[in-house]
Amino acid sequence: MEKRKTVQELQTEVDEYISQFKEGYFSPLAMLARMTEELGELAREVNHYHGEKPKKDSEDENTVAEELGDMLFVLICFANSLGIDLEKTHDSVMHKFTTRDKDRWTRIEDEGGSINEDN
User: What CDD domains does this protein's entry cite (predicted)?
Assistant: First the structure.
């Protein structure tokens, strides 16, 4: 079984890959454009597999997983280029969701008929 990588290991792996090339990371604006392009490709795949627009026979057989992988790579490149530690950022976001937004959504255990006191 292959060892799973931490987010920090992913960021290091991408940085080692990009560091091989003189060009290095793209500028933040170019990175954002690239991420937008990848998001469009992801949207297209989701629409093909889960929406109303089937693929044409002439179109490549990409998958949602492949497009998510491309998005992840560009996101890591973006974070690395700006010196952002995605593990710390993730922890900060999760703290926000578990504190500020803790009562925003209906918990599965609350569906049994119990009423939130905020309602």
Answer: NTP-PPase_BsYpjD
Nearest-angstrom CA–CA distance, 49 and 55: 8
Nearest-CA neighbor of 104 among 119, 92, 93, 88? Answer: 119
pLDDT confidence tier of residue 115, bands split at 50, 70 and 90: low
Give yes or no for a contact between 64 and 42, defined as CB atoms under 8 angstroms apart: yes
Residue 34 resides in a domain: yes
| Structural domain span for residue 36 | 7-102
Q: What is the CATH number of the domain that holds 59?
A: 1.10.287.1080
The pLDDT value recorded for residue 119 is 47
Q: What is the pLDDT of residues 69-104, one digit of tens each?
A: 999 999 999 999 999 999 999 999 999 988 988 888
For every residue of 87-98, DSSP letters joined together read HHHHHHHHHHHH
Distance, CA of 103 to CA of 115 (rounded, Å): 12
